[in-house]
Amino acid sequence: MLRFLDAGESHGKGIAVIIEGLPYGVPFSAERAEEELRRRRLGYGRGPRMALEKDKVEIMSGVRHGKTLGSPVCMLVRNAEWDKWKEVMDPDKRTYAYEPVTTPRPGHADLPGCIKYGTKDVRDILERASARETVGRVCAGALAKSLLEQFGIMIGSHVVRIGSVSAAKRELRDYREVELADDDPVRCLDKDVSHRMMREIDEANSSGDTLGGVFEVWAFGLPMGLGSHVHWDRRLDARLAMAVMSIQGIKGVEIGDGFSLSESRGSQSLDLFDEDEGSWTRRTNRSGGVEGGMSNGMPLVVRGAMKPIPTLRNGVQTRDLETGRKTVSLRERSDVCAVPAAAVVAESMVALVIADALMEIVGCDNLEAMRRRYDALLETRKELFPF
Ligand code: EPS
Q1: 202 by DSSP, 3-state: which?
Q2: Is residue 184 over pLDDT 70?
Q3: Could you identify the atom of ligand 1 that is nearest to the CA of residue 333?
Q4: Measured from the CA of 341, which atom of ligand 1 is nearest?
Q5: Average pLDDT value for the chain
Q6: How far apart are CA 330 and CA 79, in angstroms?
Q7: Does ligand 1 come within 6 angstroms of the Cβ of 205?
Q8: Residue 95 predicted with pLDDT over 70
Q9: What number does the ligand 1 atom closest to the CA of 40 have?
Q10: Has this prediction a pTM greater than 0.90?
């Protein structure tokens, strides 16, 4: 079983992550994780903090001479502004000269978190609820991607909607197509649409507002049969939905044509079997690469819908937890739109789910042995189903 945990507050010392369950011998380096973190900072519409954070990765354990050891991999990313926030966030300090934040912002974890944990200082909740936490997920995802690459499984993403501006549906054939998204300021594959998206971000920004949107994660090269139909919690689509839904701000997840499939007739919804030079293929990929909770050999397509960021620059109407009186929440710096970054985080979550599912069918303690198991599995399948 592949598992990971991360820790850290948005303005604390930093974010730490521990990943366990990968074999010995996976090529990995701090630079590999830093490259994914760099991609996570991309995106027109991010706030000033993205220019401040350098996201340097320190590998604390589990990797030696550029390869995993099979032991837990621990990574640490320090927050650039710790010195500035020390007084507010210092774990050792007992008396605070600092004013608690008592104005919960609707749309955030603030109010339910304060009531659940029994605190009237919203900072006790918001610091951990922040999407800064996703730095840990992206470090873990970089490691999962490094494993998957050894088996020719490649994962990318692109933005298909920001606010009211959406791109036309595209069928991507390989990773090189989706990879191009990183060259665009909003990680959209269509230049004209990208310009309109940026204009929409400028407009929202000028009125102190924020935007959400939709991204697609594509995974290529999956073997058939990752996941299973036999139990609810073994279904690949269910696991993907949970992983992507767990990202801050995500309110909807679709696999393949998802919601729009529900409008079509059965006869129009199938991905019919076809034949191409002796092997079975599909004419369409409406199912997004998953049937019956298992990968079906087509590219995996997972779409996530992100709500607009609920922190508004000029504050929002709220009530004070101490006095109960109506007031305006803190005026804070924030992102206008974080959809391009959320897509990169979603790639990481998808990579972790796929890596876990791959380990289930051919996993073992050593990468070379795992590779042999994988080849043997494909060989056996070819004998059983020679088409
Ligand atoms: C975030 C608020 C902003 C974002 C932050 C997530 O931070 P700050 O309040 O310090 O300006 O920049 O995102 C990151 C730091 C990051 O690395 O993605 C929030 O409240 O969720």
Answers
A1: helix
A2: yes
A3: 11
A4: 18
A5: 96
A6: 22
A7: no
A8: no
A9: 18
A10: yes
